[in-house]
Amino acid sequence: MEITSVATQGGYGSSNWVTSYLLMFSDSGRNWKQYRQEDSIWGFSGNVNADSVVYYRLQPSIKARFLRFIPLEWNPKGRIGMRIEAFGCAYRSEVIDLDGKSSLLYRFDQKSLSPIKDIISLKFKTMQSDGILLHRAGPSGDYITLELKRGKLFLLINSGAARLPSTHALVNLTLGSLLDDQHWHSVLIQRLGKQVNFTVDEHRHRFHTQGEFSYLDLDYEISFGGISAPSKSVSFSHNNFHGCLENLYFNGVDIIDLAKKQKPQIVIKGNVSFSCSQPQSVPLTFLSSRSYLALSTFSREDEILVSFQFRTWNKAGLLLFSELQLLSGGLLLLLSDGRLKLNLHPPGKLPSDITAGVGLSNGQWHSIALYAKRNHLSLMVDGHMTSASPLGTEIYSGGTYYFGGCPEKSFASKCKSPLGGFQGCMRLISISNEVVDLILVQQGSLGNFSDLQIDSCGISDRCLPNYCEHGGECSQSWSTFHCNCTNTGYTGATCHSSIYEQSCEAYKHRGNASGLYYVDSDGSGPLGPFLLFCNMTETAWTVIQHNGSDLTRVRNTHPGNPYAGFFEYMASMEQLQATINRAEHCEQELAYYCKKSRLVSQQDGTPFSWWVGRTNETQTYWGGSVPDPQKCTCGLEGNCIDDQYHCNCDADRSEWTNDTGFLSYKEHLPVTKIVITDTGRPHSEAAYKLGPLICQGDKSFWNSASFNTEASYLHFPTFHGELSADVSFFFKTTALSGVFLENLGITDFIRIELRSPTTVTFSFDVGNGPFEISVQSPTQFNDNQWHHVRVERNMKEASIQVDQLSPKIQAAPADGHVLLQLNSQLFVGGTATRQRGFLGCIRSLQLNGMALDLEERATVTPGVQPGCRGHCGSYGKLCRHGGRCREKPRGFFCDCASSAYTGPFCAEEISAYFGSGSSVIYNFQENYSLSRNSSSHAAPFHGDMKLSREMITFSFRTTRTPSLLLYLSSFYKEYLSVIIAKNGSFQIRYKLNRYQEPDVINFDFKSMADGQLHHVKINREEEVVFVEIDENARRQVFLSSGSEFTAVKSLVLGRILEHGEVDPDTSLAGAQGFTGCLSAVQLSHVAPLKAALRPSHPAPVTITGHVAESSCVAPAGTDATSRERTHSFTDHSGTMDDREPLTNVIKSDSAVIGGLIAVVIFILLCITAIAVRIYQQKRLYKRNEAKRSENVDSAEAVLKTRGFAMDKNCSYPECTGDGFAAPPSCHVQARTAPGGLIQ
User: Fold this and answer.
1) Of 97-101, 214-218, 332-336, 1208-1212, where does mean pLDDT reach its minimum?
2) Each residue of 293-330: pLDDT tens digit?
3) What is the pLDDT of residue 700?
4) Where are the alpha helices (DSSP H) in 175-262?
5) Could you tell me which CATH number the domain at 910-926+944-1109 has?
6) Residue 1181 and residue 1237: Cα distance in Å, rounded?
7) Where is the Laminin G domain (predicted)?
8) Are 692 and 570 in contact (CB under 8 A)?
9) DSSP character for 13?
10) Angle at 897 between CA 891 and CA 900, to 5 degrees
11) Is 1145 helix (H, G, I), strand (E, B) or coil?
12) Would you say domain 283-290+308-453 falls under CATH 2.60.120.200?
């Protein structure tokens, strides 16, 4: 019958009831199988008193003739007492028994079936691991085969040109495991065209078949149990099925019923019977390392002959120990690292251990036969014999055999188990050619045992289904499974958590610089990581390249013969969509050049050219426009070359023009295709160039809400994380405690809370009782700074981590409940009871990689405000070298105005190469008397101010002596000079009193003009000067010449042009100046190099001679461009695993560089030929206009050279031909002459 539910009750009017039990079932009364809940729960909770009824609905239901209830625990004040009731319905069964040589062949009418649709259902039972269950083939090589192999079902479908060479290629099309367990298993195959649903028991797999066609070219016959017709043989070896089939249906036809009635459509091959008469073996389950079975025998003493079969997932354990006469030890048969080892104990009695077999811990049944007689010893594993050389001693049986383990020492047994007990199943145990009746063992009349389950094999495949996510490799032992996450990009017990950030914005706020990064846009979601370029400016820009970035020319097209250009990106469309959805803004530059090539027909408005985005819809608006009007940028701005049209190209001019701009409607990006149809007329031509997809920011990263009362909260739909759940967010607060998040079920729940100022706790219950794990911090969390929390719960463990503190992990109970079943709303910032609410801010809340929009919900929720300020308290430390953190509504930025550095974190030094005789002079006061009445913002030190302290930092590299590095002067002939003397020593000279000689601080431990980069820090507090060179040479000096500067005049780097009253060494060095590289020069809050090379406003700086921005990090002798490029990437190399940019993969694009060189040569030749200066370029345009009728290919020559102008303010290597997209601040664009000619 089919049993759908069971109910239990205690003994009537007694104290006897069972509190937990196992439920087992069988269709024959032998070879029992345990019923499990959730694939992992073995036991059922029973009664708590004698009268109440505990009811369980069985999903899935049980088809069986016998039920067995095994009490595990009962009322300690009573005894076992159970009243049991089973609920179900009748079950119809048609059975056929196949002996491994027989089969059925069903022939049917071709009119009765569809060539694209099949439905096949059956149940089977066998103890053989291999066999063909069904096969149908066709004349052209198409076939469908269902084969049992190694206890798993393989479904092979071959359609059209698809050639699947072997079952090894079909590993993804397998279902089931351990199906040779002599229990019934159900199979359902549903095929509709290329879509196939394959179901085995409760596991389903959906997939598309291989090949070009949606139908299978098959004959109108199908065989079951084997391949009946020799002409229908297949390329792989096969065995016929040996076992029983039940309720076999093919497209609604009862095959077994037709066979019973001997209908002509059925051809029976071999001997079949219509009842399941398969022999029943009695298996044993060794449940723990304490399990064993001891059997005594009265066979011949001079012979040992033992055979059995076993299956296990464990790599080690004792299989057999045989006591020996005349020896103090015994003969051991061990499983070690998946191989068998046979030796004598104590060791040394055998010349060497016998080792046999490999991979024996694969869950399959393996046959063992051990034979020993006097000094001969042999071992057979799965039919392969291994023998030992004659022994030096004779072996005599001691009469007792221990299978699977040894009894406790108190039993005074000789049994030894150096590798621990065996966990797995055994069957068909035979001693001296006599099969052991294990039912007698169960009844207690034969042998003795401990912790065994007799007449049942309790092995389960813990890797089916595979709970290792994101391609993690599953392996298992008897009691658990393990996930190998190597090369997946994910980590954790089930490979759930991504090791990569979700956006460039997240990388930026870890302090990373521009470079290549792996980004996982949906975190722990199904999408994998992909490689992109992050351009870290004040905001983070994401740059995603495609394969069509070159300028492409199109000719000879018309509506009947269109041109289509396709773009493939470095990410899937799903990954691109996730990235775009997270971004605050995205854009893509599309440049369309045309010469007598229109975009739209002026007669009926039919588009001649269009593009397609990720929605796969045709778009007829162009760069700079919006979706609704079919216009270009010039049409919106009203500056098209012909005001009758909305696009330049629609003017249909015979000279080159263009419609270029940025597409920024996120729902249509990225561009995947462009179609051009109007270049078929004489002298008609078009060209296009598509830039990379560029996205800005991460709207989820700063999405936040402020909770102002303990009773306030936000609510969201129920969180569904049944098997794997992760929650991450930032919080900041000054409160002592509060609940961040809570979601309830009937009994299950999850809760994350600030338990105390130093404790964050994760509590949960999945049916095994409440658990909680906490992170304790040595410092308080309620410091009003951002803290990051991440919790995860999966089948194996739960974990919590806060900031960079060590994570806390709680292992899941073995064979416990695993499904987290929640049904209430998700409460954020509070609880359903409105108690213990959170006061503070929560930001970037994500559940299983999906962000919740806190701001949107907060706008309509009383007591909660969208957004949260105060980011600098946490992120201000990212602003380096004197940069100041400034708040933004969504985030912060580093103000580098007072720093000698630049970049998003004020970490990019500004360096310059000084040629011979060059200098940079920063004038604090033009004239002392004038400055007293001046309010100029460019003079930070005033003449009447006394400078009693200063901090000076800089780096330098040179090989010249003497050299003047820095000279600070005043109107009162006081000065500070930093020089390299003629002997190479480093000297600092302070003269703070015009009437005294300068104080000299001399470092002469080595020559500083050695071509190496040196770092200098000088800090003066009145008469105390602290000097540090290269972070190791330190000195503190007390000045005698004075304690303050009066009326500071100027700061000079390099050669001193106006010589004052200085000492001879300073005068000599000042006349020589400085030749080399100076970097990151700063005097208190003045940065002279930055003011000279990167002015943000007019500054009192004078540059004399050759001073060029460069990099002091680059080795001497490289050109300025190379030095700059090296500097941009030298300090930011990293690997995938530590989330650093992959800058080592950056390589120069030789083709682009060659194109740039060609542009330079072309321009020089043009200038020479027409003998005009650069400022006469307008005449050149006019001359090109005049020549256009004589040479229609002049534009083509320019197109070939790909001459593009670059913003002069760009210094990023991605703008200089290294194969990367220009950042938003320096987009590369084509210059267009007044006549439309591309220059």
Assistant:
1) 1208-1212
2) 999 876 666 778 899 999 999 999 999 988 777 665 67
3) 92
4) 255-260
5) 2.60.120.200
6) 8
7) 95-276, 282-457, 703-868, 925-1112
8) no
9) T
10) 115
11) helix
12) yes
| DSSP letters spanning 561-630 | B-EEEE--BSS-HHHHHHHHHH-SEEEEEEEEEEES--SB-TTT--BSEEEE-TT--EE---TT--SSS-
Q: 589: which strand partners?
A: 662
Let me know if the fold of 541-696 is the same as that of 703-868.
yes
Residue 650 is given by DSSP the state G
Nearest in space to 515 (alpha carbons), one of 1144, 1191, 1202: 1144
Q: What is the DSSP string of 691-744?
A: PPEEEE--TTTT-EEEE-STT--EEESPP--SS-EEEEEEEE--SS-EEEEEEE
| Amino acid letter, 1206 | M
- Check pLDDT > 70 for residue 415: yes
Q: Under CATH, what is the fold of the domain 2-89? A: Jelly Rolls (2.60.120)
Q: If DSSP states are collapsed to H, E and C, what string results for 971-1002?
A: CCCCEEEEEECCCCCEEEEEECCCCCCCEEEE
| Those residues with Cβ within 8 angstroms of residue 1224's Cβ, 6 or more apart along the chain or in another chain | 535, 537, 541, 587, 694, 696
Domain 95-161+168-230+237-269 -> CATH class: mainly beta
Query: Domain 703-868: which CATH class?
Result: mainly beta
Instruction: Give CA 386 to chain center in angstroms.
Output: 48
Using a cut of 0.90, tell me whether the model's pTM lies above it: no
DSSP string, 849-890: TEEP-HHHHHTTSTTEEE-----HHHHGGGS-TT-EEEEETT
What pairing do the DSSP bridges indicate for beta strands 975-980 and 986-991?
A: antiparallel
* Whether the bond into 670 is cis, omega within 30 of 0: yes
Nearest-angstrom CA–CA distance, 180 and 164: 25
3-state secondary structure 58-113: EEEEEECCEEEEEEEEECCCCCCCCEEEEEEECCCCCEEEEECCCEEEEECCHHHC
**Confidence class for position 1222, pLDDT limits 50, 70, 90:** very low
Task: Summarize pLDDT for 188-209 with one digit per residue, the tens.
Answer: 999 887 788 999 988 888 887 6
Is it the case that residue 663 has pLDDT exceeding 70?
yes
CB 411 within 8 A of CB 257: no
Express as a percent the part of the chain with pLDDT over 70: 83
For residue 914, give the nearest of 1113, 1104, 1106, 1115 by alpha carbon.
1106
Burial classification of residue 606, based on how many CB atoms lie within 10 Å of its CB (0-12 exposed, 13-18 middle, 19 or more buried): exposed
Is 50 exceeded by the pLDDT of residue 910?
yes
Omega prior to 465 cis, within 30 of 0: yes
Residue 209: its pLDDT value, please?
A: 65
Q: Find out whether 936 and 1059 touch, Cβ atoms under 8 Å.
A: no
Domain spans of the chain, in order of start? 2-89, 95-161+168-230+237-269, 283-290+308-453, 541-696, 703-868, 910-926+944-1109
d(CA 1105, CA 1109): 13
Partners of 174 in beta bridges = 154
552 secondary structure, DSSP code: E
- Where does 541-696 sit in CATH, by number? 2.60.120.1000
User: 306 and 332 in contact (C-beta within 8 Å)?
Assistant: no
